[in-house]
## 1
Amino acid sequence: MAKWKTSPLGELCDVIGGGTPAKSEPAYYAGEIPWATVRDMQNEIITETEFRITKKAVQSSATNIIPAGNVVIATRVGLGKVCMVSDDTAINQDLRGIVPRDPLRLSARFLFWCLKSMSDLIVAEGTGATVQGVRLPFVKSLRVPAISLPEQQCTVAILDEAFKGINIAKVNAERNLHNARAVFESHLQSLFKQRGQGWIEKRLTEVSREFGRGKSKHRPRNDSTLYRGPYPFIQTGDISNADHWLTNYTQTYNERGLAQSRLWPKGTICIAIVGATVGETAILDFEACFPDSVIGIVVDDKLADKEYVEFLLQAFKSLLKEKGKGTARDNINLGTFENQKFPFPSLKTQQEIVAALNDLAIETQRLVIIYERKLLALEALKKSLLDRAFSGDLRDKKTRNHVAAVA
């Protein structure tokens, strides 16, 4: 099938730039005119902006007002994002407004879907060392299908309906994904709240053969001569990214690095004790070093099951995070655990709890994978529909019926 004929965007539309009113004039930001930045491009239509500015702010800066119902695209920060504006809206320098010169020749809503289909193309064109951006001539050179207004309206109706259905499916999949994860967390919490007969409150030091902070004596710590050797060096981010067992790492020590640290055994429970990752835990699946921003616990396997202890710490993570607040940088330390007691049943019961939680974790992960794949499939479907729509395939009745079925 022949593709639609196209025309350059610059022949059909005014491409309008933006700017930022002087930050030194706070009064400029106490007005009624919406002023959009990339941060406001969270949804298909910008209905609210973080800032509102005055007429004087518009007159004294490079910003311009885009009439309601038209398209704005990100051409710098947030490159490739496309939205419409619900009200007359001023824009900053990272955005450009795209306004059809003749609405009877080109529908703004059709243009919105057309530019959405070009997002990958726009991103691929981006250049710049620190901030990727595209230049005005490129924007004006983008090709827009030259089809009649009724055919544009038909395309818009089909895409609006299809994307409405896809977005509903996406919301449901995201809800199911959240619920699958929440079920495990809820069960984990209830286990340690309900407890049972014969459970005893103990400190972690009472069930450990070793309980201490990691070691990294050398200063500066980022000395390149310590790294790129055979010994895994665990950092707090690795712990945060792990799921119960820590199986991956991003850095290694060499012999010199090992000499100023220590190698903890496989099965050591790691607790991140500083910063945004405070309270995160995981079990080493290999021998590894780690710095003093991590506490290591080697459980006495005659008294406790290491997996039980890690699940226990997961359940008490919010408590640990709370104990770490109150300083410029959240942190906990060995003293945090001196008087903190945790519930311990018999070793046999611990192992039964671990088996049940691992079974639930496997089922949870199975559901998570299903819903994550569904979300990826929905995103791929969006792209496929846009590609087909703007290659002229929607002229074909069979294709239109397929798209309608998606809706």
## 2
Amino acid sequence: MGQIVELIRLFGLTRLVRMKRRHDRALPIVRGYCTTVSLWALFNTGVMDALAGGAAASAADLARTAGLDARILGYVLDYLDGVRVLKCDAAGRYSLTGLGEVLVREPRGVFDLACGYEPVLNELTGLLKGEKRFGRDVTRRTAAVGRGEAELGRQLPFVVLADEVKRGGFRTVLDLRCGHLEFLFTLCRVDPDVRGFGIDASPEAVEHARERLAASPFRDRVTVEHADFFDIDGLLEHRPDVDVMTAYDTFHEHLLEGTGKVETFLAHCHGKHPGVAMVVAEFCRQPHDRLRRRPTAFAEHHLWHNLTDQVLLSADEWRTVFQRAGYRIEHERVFDIVGHGYFTLR
């Protein structure tokens, strides 16, 4: 009590209360950053996985298992105990709280995505000043982005996209950007009769996809190879059984100079391969006033994409692109709540 009285004497009660309230409003923002960075470190080193499912362990044991610096790890664990993500018992063993258990489940993909875009945010001052440019001086962590996309995709988008493929009665799927094969695996689980052919322009993604495929129960139904989907004719000549192409969040990465490149590709596919349908899942830009009224995770999502030259179109703009390319939209589902649209094109 004496300390408070002394502070009031020095600053006055009104000023002291005002300062405290302002600091209280800033703290969640700073704490969110520190907590996120701490969680990235524990996710990326396997510590959070080691604690998942109710396990409890000391900093020394966790450091020994993961090959980490026990002193630094102890500081991070103590911080997360202080903000109630972890809890430390009387024996000095750490375990997940209820909040921690939640964070290692569905939201983990968001943390992976954020980690993927962290180098861009870290250089934001340089980007603002024009001293740095994305693609030249700054890049995102593609592996972390891929992990985040796969994790979040399993939860909703891949299920909807697979349902759209199944609804169309398609049997052989050419996935134009297969990544880690998570969508084709989801599709195989949903439909036991479908076969998948995945391609990706990233050699690293294809290498990882092949490793996953070799250990999966779908290795007899799925194949994968390194290829650029813009060279579609050769791919389809070798796979005449393909009756549908799927594109999950693929085309928005090619819109920086306008929609011409994507429209030309789609028009070519429609004109030369009219018997092959297209099922497209794409982000649909949300109006700013909607995000302002309800700032969901798409506020961050739009920022990440805008800073990395990925152009997001509205659902209406996507419809226009497809129609200009000659496609008829046979079926569509647009979920504003998740900012995603699904279109079956013929």
## 3
Amino acid sequence: MELHQLRYFVAVAEAGSFREAAAQCHVAQPSLSQQIIKLEKSLGHKLFDRLGRRIALTEAGRALLPRANAILTAVREAQRDVEKDIETGHGPLAVGAIPTIAPFLLPRTVGRFVKSFPHADLTVFEDLTEALIERLLRAELDLCILSLPIDHDQIETEPVLDDPLLVVAPREGDVAGMAEMSLEEFQDRPAVLLHEMHCLGQLIRGLCQGSGLRQRIVCHTTQLTTVQSLVALGLGISLVPRICAAGDRSRRCVYRPLRGAPSTRKIAVAWRRGRERSWLADRFLEEVRQEGERLAALDDATIFH
């Protein structure tokens, strides 16, 4: 028993004619008749008596008609309810982000999204890149905010922000009087660096090693906010992304461009290739794009104070 067979059956019962029902359903009469025969075979009962040019419902046909109408009405209501839920932002959405991006890009993004779609069931996961990609591949996450490159043929990405590295130093030190700092000047000072468990930590290590720097590392930490706090205490200087500097309102640190060896990470939104993004996922992606544009447009004067 299939839905289109029930539709044809109801149309014939209401029209009292196979010919008229076929015209109403925009299908050839032989095709409609064939589907009715298949429906009768699946039920094991005749549904119509053919009385010349007239037809009449059999006992089985009279029993099926209200049930068929109820099924078709339920299907139409389900279709309307699905459209309504989509249009009003109902439904689940699972988003992931790596720890070196989440605190700086997600709060405004999530805030706007939740305000616009209060009925959405939003879940946010913060984890390392490898774990988030595994969740994407298992369809446990709809979107992830990651740092490129992502070398996986089952993952699609859309870049949303270029995020350059900056030098961060204590406000009381001599770096505050500099307009910028070179990597050579960076290596002469004690450093507080992000641990290489993060892809950002690997990027910083690669930048320093590629330039042949001999760093005096006094601390490895797993959190960018800890890097900022230790730098503010005078333990050393470091490299952090621009979005991290943009979120620092303590004014205990100064941030300066890195001269001579510019390095920029690309922040992107990722999803599983071949999996259709939901309506809510597209709305969230729009919010991430908007936040990326806002962060990119921040005046340098608000950061290099």
## 4
Amino acid sequence: MKRSVPVSLLALGIDPGSPVARYRQLYEGIRDAILTGRLRPGARLPSTRALAAETRSARNTVIAAFEQLVAEGYLEGRVGAGTRVALTLPESLLHARPVTDPRRAAGPRPALAERGRRLLETWGHRRPTGGPVRPFRTGYPALDAFPTEVWARLMTRRWARVSRQLLAYGDPAGYQPLREAIAAYLREARAVRCDAGQVVVLTSSQQGIEVATRVLLEPGDPVWVEDPGYPGAHDGLAGAGLRLVPVPVDAEGIDIAAVAPEAPAGRLVYVTPSHQYPLGVTMSLRRRLALLDWADRTGAWILEDDYDSEYRYAGPPLAALQGLDQAGRVLYLGTFSKVFSPGLRLAYCVAPPELVDAVVAARFQSDRHPPAVNQAVLADFIGEGHFARHIRRTRALYAERQAALVEAARRLLAGKLEVSPAAAGLHVLGWLPPGVDDRAASRAAAEHGVEAAPLAAFRIRAGGRGGLVLGYAGFTEREIADSVMCLARALEGRGAARSKK
């Protein structure tokens, strides 16, 4: 006859005066005995009757504790065999065992598809910078000017009366009131020709680039891109297996007439016409009309990234390229990351009517739908006039911060970096003296605690005068002044003086 472990081995320590229910004390006592090894796997427990007598408990109390332990996998009960400690305990399933076979640990790396290899390659040299944000990192708005109180009040109000609609799976095209608010804003502020049905809410303009390529292009198709241009677009397009054809940019913007005759005809062209990234120039009307005519004649598509058009400091707002499009060849991208915060993760695409369904389908397959509650709060924020006030307030703030940067550069960087005011945007471009290696200058700046991206990092083709791209929107005037001093010391060192070879 197989015997059970002695009741005394359990050392349950039942406390009649404890507020904890007795069955819970029994459960925790037995579980502790199992986890500490006093009860080994496979050990048979006393009967519920014997344990009830020993602990002066009702038998139903012991049964309740046993049932809980069986349900959680600590005990196993079989008819005619009593109750035993499980051979495999739940805790052992929560911790992965380390690899002990050296041959397995040193085996070949997983085989990646061609696209996986391309993505890993771009990730290796575009990996986001860790640590705190330092001047003059680009792409950061004034997080210290985020409308926290208003946003918190609108968010609280939304959660206080949140609907099932907002908690359930949402429309992959986006929250309808937000789409209507975006369309109304774009018609008025950017002269975009659209209605709410053409607006698809995204998490980022980067997602817009991915969706457009999936809908319109096949791997191997040629895509024309600005050179220098936005590295995120270059990487996203190249990662999709597309052939990048660099197109030069001058004071009037992208120059498609300069593309070599032997270059492959572009199926799509990616442009930033309102504020070219990173040079900061605005595409002239002549170039805009030429680009639209080219797209109409060749059947190509234009992907217009209007990433920071809200911030223009000289002259009236410029109309979007999309508003001039008569043939329906332009997909328009916008983002709230530069207006509010990159953490909000809301952007949008305005698609030609015949492409909307395909764009929504691609967006659905990407991550089903955008965050619903954030969309609702943003719709309230725009509809109640807070958005327009926030734009006016931050536009004035950014103009002051840009002026502080330009003035500090004039005083401290003369002869080292030529920084001129920009008519729009959240960054300026500083030109280095001819022959100075901008990558070396950027490394020297980093050693002095300043992030100054080299213009070479934005180029596909090597060559050209060196420069540093300086973001200013996310930093106070004091931070800007201190960082210009650090940059001046960096550019005086040897690191920035090495000529290009």
